[in-house]
Write a structure and sequence with these properties.
The complex is a heterotrimer.
Chain A lengths: L2 H4 L2 H4 L9 H31 L14 H10 L3 H12 L3 H32 L6 H33 L9 H26 L4
Helix pairs in contact in A: 3-7, 3-8, 4-6, 4-8, 5-6, 5-8, 6-7, 7-8
Chain B lengths: L13 H11 L5 H6 L3 H30 L9 H35 L8 H19 L28 H29 L12 H33 L12 H35 L6 H14 L15 H13 L1 H17 L6 H23 L2 H7 L3 H31 L5 H27 L16 H31 L41 H6 L15 E5 L6 E6 L6 H17 L3 H19 L6 H4 L4
Antiparallel strand pairs in B: 1-2
Chain C lengths: L6 H38 L4 E2 L2 E2 H29 L9 H34 L6
Antiparallel strand pairs in C: 1-2
Helix pairs in contact in C: 1-2, 1-3, 2-3
The chains are: A mainly alpha, B mainly alpha, C mainly alpha.
Bound molecules: protoporphyrin IX containing FE (HEM) and copper (II) ion.
Chain lengths: 204, 643, 132
């Protein structure tokens, strides 16, 4: 490839993006607006923290322990891989891969939620949503993300049910799989941002 | 008058037309009324419903003006007055301005880009029902004396539970969250429709300016609305469940509300004004007999304004102790954003100067718009002087300013749009004389009402007071304002009468009564349910004016643009509008209504704290969506599965 | 045109196009968030340094780098504009028309965002960073 070719009329007027479906665009736009929501949420966390000025977390609440959240991360982040694998599979018409991949993700996602529940059980003994703004932020951010995981899992479970019925997906029909996959990857990525904000940043 | 395009497109045969009618037509029945997904019906409903909320908000304003006509009037109690101005502001902004413009968008965007419907017709129907229910949800609180009462921007700590007990602000936060669903869904729909459903040949440089404006607005919504939603969610949690986001006593901060609110609120000014400016650009060519001057410049202005509008929110909070340096970075954006706005105005003035102006009613409203909007912009730049800003903050000067901007920048263009597209929407012409009367009354009423507010604002009269002591310079001008508002109301009533008169008595409208340039004018008035018998092939920015584009719907029709064997439309590529493939469109369905009802139950249950009911409703929402999207069963061969 | 660009060249060209169109806007957004965030947070903490660096220098960098990125976008836009003014024979007319319009939009918007960044930057020369 030469610079000349890349800066010629034809290359510069290449149509990009091109050929996406309406469903793809719809899901991407939805994810964009949701991402903005999370950005505002995490921005509010930092805003309150720095405006507060004092020790963070306030009121003698201990800094969040890292073990459980790191395990949760180790469960959730890789859960995108089976989805990718499943989607690739159904593109080639391999239904078993779709089913197996979705099932694996489902298991990982449920494990994540179970871990989160156990973490809550412990945390709630120390502070709640009404203790102070830190508590409010902690439970709003993690709870809202947990809700997204639940929605994502519902989508995955729904795809699995539809694919088990048969007659739903194949090499020529997999739009719904891809759209749900986009959402799931998003939920995953957001968790990375939350891990940094809620669990790691108080130690910085 | 146009002589072309009147005959039912020679391109589509009688059988094609019959087949299209069979696939797209809706026989009048209760089921089809509740289940329709036709963007034209939905668009009309948006317009009518938003108009209804405008009347309610306008009556609230009249009540306020009546109260303020004389000093120390006792017509309204302070509590009632608070609810009235809050509902007036909130409804005007959220339930009238944006939905009204979305109504225009819904009706027009598919027609202007030469498609048969929106990208997601069922989502479109859902958006309408949610908007309707959210609006009713909020207004229903007024008779109970439980309407929002903390001003349309609902500053904490005033709106926290300790200071405003009762349901008032819960109605506000839940209502706006509910409405947000409709606005977001509508915006995504506009973006995807404009990206994928344009007629073949409509590359980005041939997209009508109105569509550009709607898409830019939709993008602003996508990025701005989350801030408001989050804000309202936090407010609700604070009030109902005792969290402390805005509570400085427990590590919270009241300024968080203001920051989030204005991150949304400033772009929202443009969310309201932008599509209205799009209407201006759409109406102008028909009444100046030429294309708008400087098309790429206006596109630039639209794009630039929608981006910069996110960088100016801090000017609403100059008094909150930001570092001066930070503030100056935001002022730079606030100052520069006037340039693209100015470019648009000058492009329109140049269009009028270079064209042959035809003074029909829509054109009168456009002129009224320019005058009023420019005055509003002028008082706006006065705020940029910090000292002056400090002087008039929270006075009636501000009220005057934003009514000039909002009525000038949104209501006048909307009225122009109503007269302009009435023939297309209803298939009937309006009465020109009646329209002129309406214009002059509205125009005079507007200025008589709001110009004096500058004066008594400068004389120090604060806004949001339910009454006032007699002061020099206040009493007389207040009475003038009140008289003006009645004049304005009569003018608006004449608009309504004009519309009703057109529907009942108007003479039938030809497809293109104005000799206008965009695609909606090259199909019937009102359009058939399938919009175009033959989907056009677009060859220029003004397809109805150019022979080749028109011919593509007539003699040059091809089978692959008639698509009569199914409920179908065309997908084209994102930037260049190259044909991609044919897609099947959904049939009418009751699912959108059911889903919206489930959401209504959810929000109502949250409001009155019946949480188990809310949980059931949430499950119903999920179930409806699951059924809605459930894939139809197809034979294995069609799907392409390996054994 | 005898040779058509390959897929890599097309991808690069397409991305360059988007850099031309959106480069200035994104640079400005990053600039504003960075400047405001750094200034507000550092001053709220009662400091005027970030680690070893004086706050002024950090803010200065958050002005200059985005400004340079915007200049780059402006140059790219000018390139698109030139390449679409006399398109070679045999190139599709629609993408060129679209590219040309986008180039005009891009040139203006990059100029505009450059002005905003520079105007804000001037304040840095006169105002101490934490003055309220
Ligand atoms: C139709 C004629 C209208 C009249 C007579 C009118 C009158 C008023 C008056 C008297 C107030 C001030 C209340 C106070 O501060 O005590 C007010 C506030 C307001 N108006 Fe209007 N208005 C009209 C139309 C509109 C329109 C079309 C919009 C927006 C699209 C609008 C948006 C607002 C807003 C946002 C407020 C501020 C509410 C608050 O303080 O929270 N108004 N209006
Ligand atoms: Cu503003």
């Amino acid at each position: 490839m030469s610079v000349r070719a890349a800066t010629g009329t034809e290359a510069l007027t290449t149509e990009l993006p091109v050929g996406r479906s309406t469903g793809w665009w719809g899901m991407v736009m939805f994810v964009v607006t949701e991402a903005t929501l999370f950005a505002c949420l995490l921005g509010s966390y930092f805003y309150l923290r720095f405006q507060y000025g004092g020790p963070w977390p306030p009121d003698g609440i201990s800094k969040p322990k890292l073990l459980v959240p790191l395990v949760m991360t180790a469960v959730l982040l890789p859960s995108s891989l089976p989805v990718v694998w499943a989607e690739r599979g159904i593109r080639q018409g391999q239904r078993w891969r779709l089913r197996a991949g979705l099932a694996a993700t489902l298991v990982l996602g449920v494990t994540f939620l179970a871990l989160q529940a156990s973490e809550y059980a412990e945390k709630l003994r120390e502070f709640t949503m009404t203790t102070d703004a830190y508590g409010s932020l902690f439970y709003l951010i993690t709870g809202f993300h947990g809700l997204h995981v639940l929605v994502g899992l519902t989508m995955i479970g729904w795809l699995l049910a539809a694919s088990l019925r048969g007659g739903s997906f194949g090499a020529h029909r997999h739009e719904r799989v891809r759209n749900a996959a986009i959402y799931w990857h998003f939920v995953d990525l957001v968790w990375a941002a939350i891990l940094f904000t809620v669990y790691l940043s108080p130690r910085l | 008058m146009s002589t072309t395009a009147a005959a039912p497109a020679p391109g589509a045969s009688r059988e094609d037309l019959a087949a299209l009618e069979e696939r797209w037509g809706e026989r009048p029945s209760l089921r089809s009324w509740f289940g329709t997904v036709d963007h034209k019906r939905i668009g009309r409903r948006y317009l009518v419903t938003a108009g209804f909320f405008f009347i309610l908000a306008g009556l609230s304003a009249l009540a306020m003006r009546t109260q303020l006509a004389r000093p120390e009037s006792r017509l309204l109690s302070p509590q009632e007055y608070n609810q009235l101005f809050t509902m007036h502001g909130t409804a005007m902004i959220f339930l009238f301005a944006t939905p009204m413009l979305f109504g225009f968008g819904n009706f027009l965007v598919p027609l202007m880009i030469g498609s048969r419907d929106m990208a997601f017709p069922k989502l479109n129907a859902l958006g309408y029902w949610v908007f309707l229910f959210a609006g009713l949800f909020m207004w229903a609180s007024l008779p109970f004396g439980a309407a929002p009462n903390g001003g349309w921007f609902a500053y904490v700590p005033l709106t926290e539970r300790t200071n405003t007990p009762g349901l008032h602000m819960d109605v506000y936060s839940l209502g706006l969250l509910f409405l947000g669903i409709a606005t977001t869904a509508g915006s995504i729909n506009f973006i995807v429709t404009a990206l994928k459903l344009r007629a073949p040949g409509m590359s980005l440089n041939r997209v009508p300016l109105f569509v550009w404006a709607i898409v830019a607005t939709a993008f602003m919504v996508i990025f701005a609305l989350p801030a408001l939603n989050l804000d309202n969610a936090m407010l609700f949690l604070d009030r109902r469940f005792g969290t402390h986001f805005f509570d400085p006593g427990a590590a919270g901060n009241v300024l968080l509300w203001q920051h989030l609110f204005w991150i949304f609120g400033h772009p929202d000014v443009y969310i309201i004004v932008m599509p209205a400016l799009g209407i201006v650009s759409a109406v102008l060519p028909a009444f100046t007999r030429r294309g708008v001057v400087g098309y790429p410049l206006i596109v630039f202005a639209i794009v630039a304004i929608s981006i910069i509008s996110f960088g100016v929110w801090v000017h609403h909070m100059f008094a909150t102790g930001l570092p001066r340096l930070s503030y100056s970075f935001f002022s730079a954006a606030s100052t520069i954003i006037t340039i693209p706005s100015g470019i648009q105005i000058f492009a329109w003035l140049a269009t009028m100067a270079l064209g042959r102006v035809v003074l029909k009613v829509p054109m009168l409203f456009l002129i009224g718009f320019v005058v009023t909007f420019v005055l509003g912009g002028f008082t706006g730049t006065m705020f940029a002087l910090t000292a002056f800003d400090q002087q008039v903050t929270d006075s009636y000067f501000v009220v005057a300013h934003f009514h000039y901007v909002l009525i000038g920048g949104a209501v006048f263009p909307m009225l122009a749009g109503i007269y302009y597209w009435l023939p297309k929407i209803t298939g009937r012409m309006y009465h020109e004389g009646l329209g002129r009367w309406a214009f002059w009354l509205v125009f005079a009423g507007m200025h008589v009402t709001f110009f004096p507010m500058h004066l008594y604002g400068l004389f120090g009269m604060p806004r949001r007071v339910y009454t006032y002591r007699s002061e020099p310079g206040w009493d007389g001008w207040n009475l003038v304002s009140t008289a003006g508002s009645y004049l304005l109301a009569i003018g608006l009533l004449l608009v309504l009468i004009g519309v009703l008169h057109a529907i009942r008595r108007g003479r039938p409208a030809p497809p293109d009564p104005w000799g206008a340039d965009s695609l909606e004018w090259s199909t019937d008035s009102p359009p058939k349910p399938y919009n175009f018998p033959v989907l056009p092939r677009v060859h220029s920015l003004h397809p109805t004016w150019d022979e080749a584009s028109r011919e593509s719907m007539g003699a040059g029709a091809t089978r692959d643009r008639i698509l009569a064997d199914g409920r179908r439309t065309l997908l084209t590529s994102e930037l260049d509008g190259s044909r991609e493939r044919v897609v099947e469109m959904p049939e009418a369905s009751l699912q959108p209504l059911v889903l919206a009802l489930a959401m209504l139950v959810f929000f109502t249950a949250m409001l009155v704290a019946w949480y188990p009911v809310a949980a059931v409703a949430a499950v119903a929402v999920a179930a409806t969506i699951a059924v809605w999207l459930w894939p139809p069963r197809r034979p294995e061969r069609e799907l392409g599965v390996q054994p | 045109m005898s040779t058509h660009p390959g897929p890599r060249a097309r991808l690069t060209g397409g991305l360059l196009f988007w850099y031309a169109v959106l480069g200035g806007a994104i640079a400005w957004a990053v600039h504003l968030l960075a400047v405001w965030g750094v200034d507000e947070l550092t001053c709220a903490g009662g400091r005027e340094r970030i680690g070893a660096l004086p706050l002024r220098a950090v803010i200065g960098a958050a002005v200059v780098l985005p400004a340079l990125a915007t200049v780059g976008a402006l140059l790219a836009a000018a390139l698109v504009w030139r390449r679409t003014s006399h398109p070679p024979e045999g190139v599709d007319e629609r993408p060129v028309g679209r590219g040309r319009m986008a180039a005009v939009v891009a040139i203006w918007s990059n100029l505009l965002f450059l002005t905003i960044i520079v105007l804000g930057g001037i304040a840095l020369l006169v105002l101490p960073p934490c003055l309220r």
